[in-house]
């Protein structure tokens, strides 16, 4: 071309090796000579020639260029041919935007694992209808002061993050879709704060939406997250997020995860089809939920842990659990508030446990609960005001010392037992009505206390108020009506009562002719002259391995002495060799402690143990007692038990296993970490299994914090021997192996006898011999549960007994208490 020729009006040919098309630039400047059209063989040349406001229309083709847009131009593909312009350099960032440009209708392909496919660094550009197909560090990255508007863009990046907004970046993303991501679908960090509107994220290997770090935040409206291998939404490290009208479903990990001072608001959202926890909060995180639903979850619907962690739920619904865990779990000092909520079709509705944990439930409905609607244990507190509980096995159960709270103005309908108070728990129950319980309306036993003011029981199949064991319970202005076995029963478990013990009854009435004592008389304390309650009055602990309450038991203050705990160990049926091993170990620790006090050297005793044996042989019980013994000797701070298995320790992707294992170890700090079926962490065909990561993390934690936690690994004998052989690092950290032998028939009979005694039954003549024959003949294969089988046999006998006695018009005390050989179940 001549020197005078304006390059912006020149038509370049197709001989450039850099491109397979031409770029047409329409100049829109005010100068007449710039109102022309030029065509360029490369995008770089066109961008260099263009000025602010110019339009670059790219012809179809593949462009192996690294583009940098630094002016306020329009860069677009031809209309009506989406995807026909392909930006695909061999390395580096294919497209960088540093101005408030408009970029649309492009296909961008990246190959550089260390760089994003599209990078927006400055300005407020618009990106529209861009398809990003790449194997890059990020499909689309926004950083710094950039505030783009991104519309109808798709990202397919199976190697890295779908969309990354970081280092103070922001912008609005409308109707965008991440169709695949090797890490998080959308990641927000470094103080970034984007807004997402009607976006979809799916098939990500990490979290769907992730925010981490102080001042990092995102707002999502009308978005959907599904088919991700991590958490659907993950907010950590002081980050904040707001979700409105969003769906999170079909994740592999938890639906929503909050950790370390995270703050999240959910409004009109739906979380469902989650195999793990629907929502999990830890470490001072705060969640506010409004008009949101949680359904079809495999573990907890809401899982709330640690002091300072809090959930406020208003007008929410949690239902249709697919697992065996409580719908709402509050522990380790956390707090939950449920206002005008509904929880139904779940195994248990609300479990609150650990000192400092609290749940407040107001004007809410709990129904279709297979086990316990509200369970309070280990020193926790629950307050229910104007709530409605129906169709549950147990309405509310205050389980042990220090556990309490208030039930006020609540109704409990269609349960086996309305309210249970046991083992030193001391709740206040005011103006509550229990209607049509199959057994007792209110049941207090085993040292339970409680104050019942203005309460009412109608239509009970058993007693209205059933208080046994001389419990110091207070009843004031209570009323019973149409209770089949009587309005009030105050039975002593036996023996002389201490002066001043027993229930206090004031101004209570009944429609029975023999009613309760008049208020002017002394407190109503009676001996066990009337027939005891049926087994159903006190639901036993569930025997499924998922039972959460076997995980922790903290001795009630003052702590028991090691002698007292060893006495409980000695009272267990069988386990003679186990008792000898534990006593020998305890003696060594006690003597070592005394030698130190005397200024002498003490032998170092490794306290970690291996328990081998079949299921149901008492391994968990002995582990709990062992922790209590060590606490009584001052070796452990608390002595509580935390029980975990492979599913609690092993994550789905790299890094998550170490986090889970650390969390389990921290929860057990000061006590015992009991790992059941530990051999599952090292399967024979492990391949790339993450169980090895859990083992390595555990070994390091045991070394770094050797005085803080005692670890017990347990499982079948042969499998545990293999596990220790293939993991010498683990084997070297355990002092000894204790083998739990299977129970012999005589020991199984003794367990049934203990169960019968505990629940006020007796074996009729000949029943003991029939049980011995039954336990001798029962198959001892892999399904044999030892002590669990004995307990299940007793429960089956009670069930058959109930079916037999229910047909009697006026059963005698013997009819109600004697179990016969004919009550035995069929052999499996």
Automatic annotation (TrEMBL):
UniProt keyword ATP-binding, yes or no: yes
Region (Disordered), start-end ranges: 491-548
Signal peptide (UniProt feature, chain positions): none
Residue ranges annotated for the AAA+ ATPase domain, each copy included: 605-744
Stored SUPFAM superfamilies: P-loop containing nucleoside triphosphate hydrolases (SSF52540), Pectin lyase-like (SSF51126)
Superkingdom assignment: Bacteria
Keyword Translocase found: no
Occurrences of domain Carbohydrate-binding/sugar hydrolysis (ranges): 58-189, 330-491
Keywords (A to Z) from UniProt: ATP-binding, Nucleotide-binding, Repeat
Protein family (similarity comment): Belongs to the CbxX/CfxQ family.
UniProt-recorded name of the protein: AAA family ATPase
Organism this protein belongs to: Streptomyces sporangiiformans
């Amino acid at each position: 071309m001549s020197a005078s020729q304006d390059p912006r009006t020149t038509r370049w040919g197709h001989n450039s090796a850099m491109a397979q098309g031409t770029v047409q630039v329409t100049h829109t400047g005010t100068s007449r000579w710039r109102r022309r059209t030029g065509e360029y063989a490369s995008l770089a040349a066109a961008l260099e020639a263009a000025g602010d406001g110019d339009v670059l229309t790219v012809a179809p083709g593949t462009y192996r260029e690294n583009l940098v847009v630094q002016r306020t131009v329009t860069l677009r593909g031809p209309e009506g041919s989406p995807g026909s312009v392909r930006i695909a350099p061999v390395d580096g960032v294919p497209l960088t935007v540093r101005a408030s440009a408009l970029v649309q209708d492009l296909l961008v392909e990246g190959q550089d694992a260390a760089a994003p496919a599209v990078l927006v660094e400055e300005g407020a550009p618009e990106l529209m209808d861009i398809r990003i197909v790449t194997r890059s560090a990020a499909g689309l990255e926004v950083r710094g002061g950039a505030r783009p508007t991104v519309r109808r863009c798709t990202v397919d990046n199976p190697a890295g993050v779908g969309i990354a907004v970081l280092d103070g970046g922001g912008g609005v993303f409308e109707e965008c879709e991440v169709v695949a991501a090797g890490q998080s679908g959308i990641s927000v960090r470094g103080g970034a704060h984007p807004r997402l509107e009607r976006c979809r994220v799916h098939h990500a290997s990490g979290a769907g939406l992730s925010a981490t770090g102080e001042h990092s935040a995102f707002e999502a409206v009308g978005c959907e997250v599904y088919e991700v291998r991590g958490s659907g939404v993950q907010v950590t490290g002081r980050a904040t997020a707001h979700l409105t009208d969003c769906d999170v479903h079909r994740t592999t990990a938890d639906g929503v995860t909050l950790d370390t001072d995270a703050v999240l608001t959910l409004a009109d959202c739906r979380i469902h089809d989650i195999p793990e926890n629907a929502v999990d909060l830890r470490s001072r995180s705060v969640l506010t939920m409004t008009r949101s639903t949680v359904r079809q979850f495999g573990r907890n619907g809401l899982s709330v842990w640690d002091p300072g962690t809090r959930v406020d739920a208003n007008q929410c619904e949690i239902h249709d659990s697919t697992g065996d865990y409580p719908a709402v779990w509050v522990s380790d000092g956390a707090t939950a508030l449920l206002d005008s909520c509904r929880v139904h079709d779940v195994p248990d509705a609300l479990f609150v446990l650990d000192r400092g944990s609290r749940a407040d439930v107001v004007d809410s409905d709990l129904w279709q609960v297979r086990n316990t609607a509200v369970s309070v244990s280990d020193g926790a507190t629950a307050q229910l005001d104007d709530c409605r509980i129906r169709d549950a096995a147990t309405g509310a159960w205050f389980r042990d010392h220090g556990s309490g709270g208030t039930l006020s103005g609540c109704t409990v309908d269609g349960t086996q037992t309305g309210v249970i108070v046991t083992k030193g728990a001391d709740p206040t129950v005011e103006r509550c009505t229990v209607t049509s319980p199959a057994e007792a309306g209110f049941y207090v036993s085993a040292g339970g206390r409680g104050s019942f003011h203005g309460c009412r029981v109608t239509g009970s199949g058993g007693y209205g108020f059933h208080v046994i064991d001389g419990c110091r319970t207070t009843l004031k202005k209570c009323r019973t009506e149409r209770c089949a076995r009587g309005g009030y029963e105050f039975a002593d478990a036996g023996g002389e009562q201490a002066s001043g013990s027993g229930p206090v009854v004031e101004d209570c009435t009944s429609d029975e002719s023999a009613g309760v004592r008049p208020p002017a008389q002394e407190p109503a304390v009676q001996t066990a002259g009337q027939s005891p309650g049926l087994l159903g009055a006190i639901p036993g602990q569930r025997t499924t391995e998922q039972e959460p309450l076997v995980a922790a038991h903290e001795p009630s203050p003052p702590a028991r002495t090691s002698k007292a705990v060893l006495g409980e160990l000695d009272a267990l049926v069988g386990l003679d060799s186990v008792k000898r091993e534990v006593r020998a170990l305890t003696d060594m620790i006690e003597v070592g402690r005394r030698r130190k006090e005397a200024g002498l050297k003490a032998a170092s005793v490794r306290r970690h143990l291996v328990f081998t044996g079949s299921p149901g042989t008492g391994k968990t019980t002995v582990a709990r007692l062992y922790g209590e013994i060590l606490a009584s000797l001052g070796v452990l701070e608390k002595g509580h038990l935390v029980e975990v298995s492979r599913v609690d320790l092993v994550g789905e992707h790299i890094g998550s296993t170490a986090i889970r294992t650390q969390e389990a170890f921290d929860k057990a700090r000061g006590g015992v970490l009991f790992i059941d079926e530990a051999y599952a962490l090292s399967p024979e065909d492990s391949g790339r299994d993450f169980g090895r990561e859990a083992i390595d993390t555990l070994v390091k934690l045991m070394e770094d914090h050797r005085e803080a936690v005692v670890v017990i690994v347990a499982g079948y004998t042969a499998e545990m021997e293999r596990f220790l052989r293939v993991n010498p690092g683990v084997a070297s950290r355990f002092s000894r192996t204790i083998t739990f032998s299977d129970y012999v028939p005589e020991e199984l009979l003794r367990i049934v006898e203990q169960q019968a005694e505990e629940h006020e039954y007796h074996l009729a003549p000949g029943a003991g011999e029939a049980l011995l024959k039954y336990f001798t003949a029962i198959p001892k294969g892999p399904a044999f549960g030892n002590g669990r089988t004995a307990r299940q046999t007793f429960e089956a006998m009670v069930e058959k007994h109930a079916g037999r006695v229910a047909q009697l018009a006026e059963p005698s005390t013997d009819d109600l208490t004697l179990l016969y050989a004919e009550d035995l179940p069929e052999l499996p």
